């Protein structure tokens, strides 16, 4: 096992230990008080959103989910790089159900990574999370239609933080057979958590169907550049297994600067971030945990 794998396992173990500790009633109450106090102190420091993001923020606050046409949201250089990565993923001849662009390749052609650090995205994440934000990076992937529900293709709620924001951008048209983002709304998530006595981990379809009927499962389908804004720490969700067509997408992730834990597998290395540092503003360096 290499050093990066050992560090990843150690990070996961520390995060799980922290979450277990915070379940103790006295510690949980103390932690919640500190959290809400910090959000209260940050109210006057929250940024002002550009006009097009007010509705997204309201949807996130009300239901932890928003869906928009993102074609006007993405600059031309971001679209060009995304298209190049899609072509690279299409050329992959492995039989892996999910293929990703490596963090090194994302850093070598950093338009996508840097778009995740744009003021518009950081402003939205900070207004929703209510605290200074940590930008966790971008993931670009191809999912093949094998129909197998493993890992994130199974139902789960993310455990990184109390609140989190992800922006999922489809890089291909996504219909029912193309593996759309699937989720339960706020009320159904609450019902599933209670019915399954859920804390963390992956839930198979049969178990989820026992708590929430399959007819109540929601899917975000849409054309290329459809964008989903979602708090994956507050809603049950999954990447529905594709059955007919490959799905291409990119996902930008944000947490607070004091999460329970982060999963480092798809984050940029410290060495890469140091190389990018001169291209980033002070705010972007802070969001990338470089200052």
TrEMBL record:
Alphabetical UniProt keywords: Iron, Metal-binding, Oxidoreductase
Gene Ontology MF annotations: metal ion binding; oxidoreductase activity
Coiled-coil regions listed: none
Record-annotated Fe2OG dioxygenase domain positions: 132-256
Membrane-spanning intervals of the chain: none
UniProt record similarity statement: Belongs to the iron/ascorbate-dependent oxidoreductase family.
Protein name in UniProt: Fe2OG dioxygenase domain-containing protein
């Amino acid at each position: 096992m290499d050093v990066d794998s050992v560090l990843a396992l150690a990070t996961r173990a520390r995060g799980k230990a922290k979450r277990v500790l915070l379940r103790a009633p006295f510690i949980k109450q103390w932690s919640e008080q500190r959290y809400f106090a910090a959000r209260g102190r940050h109210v006057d420091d929250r940024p002002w959103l550009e006009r097009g993001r007010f509705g997204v923020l309201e949807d996130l606050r009300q239901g932890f989910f928003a869906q928009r046409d993102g074609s006007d949201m993405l600059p031309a250089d971001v679209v060009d790089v995304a298209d190049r990565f899609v072509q690279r993923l299409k050329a992959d001849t492995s039989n892996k159900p999910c293929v990703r662009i490596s963090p090194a390749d994302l850093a070598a052609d950093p338009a996508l990574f840097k778009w995740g650090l744009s003021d518009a995205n950081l402003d939205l994440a900070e207004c929703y999370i209510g605290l200074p934000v940590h930008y966790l990076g971008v993931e670009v992937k191809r999912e093949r239609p094998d129909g197998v529900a493993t890992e994130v293709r199974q139902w789960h709620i993310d455990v990184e933080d109390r609140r989190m924001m992800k922006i999922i951008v489809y890089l291909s048209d996504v219909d029912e057979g193309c593996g759309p983002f699937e989720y339960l709304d706020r009320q159904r998530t609450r019902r599933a958590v209670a019915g399954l006595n859920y804390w963390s981990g992956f839930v198979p379809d049969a178990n989820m169907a026992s708590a929430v009927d399959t007819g109540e499962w929601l899917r975000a389908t849409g054309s290329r550049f459809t964008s989903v804004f979602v708090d994956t720490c507050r809603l049950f969700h999954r990447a529905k297994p594709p059955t007919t067509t490959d799905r291409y997408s990119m996902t930008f992730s944000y947490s607070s600067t004091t999460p329970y834990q982060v999963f480092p597998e798809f984050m940029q290395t410290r060495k890469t971030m140091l190389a990018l540092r001169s291209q980033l503003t002070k705010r972007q360096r802070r969001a990338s945990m470089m200052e």
